[in-house]
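Bench notes, afternoon.
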Amino acid sequence: MRSLAARRLSAIMVKEMLQIVRDPSSILIGFILPIFLTLLSGYSTNLDLDHLRIGLVIEDSSPEAQDLAASFLATKYFDARVGRDRREFADDMTSGKVAGIVVIPQTFSRDMAQASASVPFQIIADGSVPNTAQFLQNYAQGVWLSWMDVRAESKGAKFAQPVHLAPRTWFNQELVSLNSLLPGGMAINLTLIGALLTALVVAREWERGTMEAMLATPVGPFEMLLGKLVPYFLLGMAAMFICLGITLLLFHVPFRGSILALMAVSAVFMISALGLGLFISSVARNQFVAAQAAILAAFLPAYFLSGYVFEPSGMPLPIQLLSRAIAARYYVSCLKTLFLVGDAWPLLLPNMGGMALIAAVLLGLTLKNTARKVA
């Protein structure tokens, strides 16, 4: 009896593997889509800005003002256009051609001589893009502090800041946003890939009537489910390694964990992602509906609620509770831990447990919805 069940299971798996080879959409989703999504994530989600376009207004012709202006022109963080009046850049601010205006006022040299102001220049930022405005203020402050330090050293003195900070950053010492965002982006990409792999393929079988024919055979629902899950699980893991290779080799994101730990975490997550696709296909037996449902039920919740960009702790309590039903939330945490920290199992194991629970619920619902029809 066991050998008969094993033969039926292996037959379904072989059939699915042949279907993957013959089906262009499976190849597209499994191999082309992860490359495209990882490249798109890597080149579009970098929050570290440089060459920020600004207007640099120099109202003071003193040597001190010219020296400070030279510091703004020399830094890689700004592409500065020099003017003599802030009104020259008003239209550019409105049209978005510059992100802000730095004004070195007429009283700059006098204020410097009197030490009447801690930062005697003005920063006008475009508040319609808060993140860029914050970067502009921080970068301008950094240029000012560096200039003051160099100026003090040239006089044989030492620049004394009102408050001296000695920051120390763990895990991402350079504060490169890509090191945190791209591992999280892998979770979003694999969520969509895993859901689409099974949702579209199984929905197509329902459309063509081949699913009913298979359910009319001695093959049981569990064998059917497992036989379809294993080949697409292997394809999904291959997609994970493609994403990993691009992340490490092209974008040089550090990876401090082990490949075995990554495989274990990704395996549990891939089962939950494929389970979501199977559940969608068991409810929506139409490829178009299944594709739309996969985007709505997989991609959008994973993007907004996983912690990839927006931290769940800052969301209202009902949304925080809802995010705990999203497997990508646990996978994002695992990926950031593996890439930036290492094999921290006290963090990985609870997240793996959350993903395993979600996978079990989804596969159980799919098994219940897959009605067996006897011809």
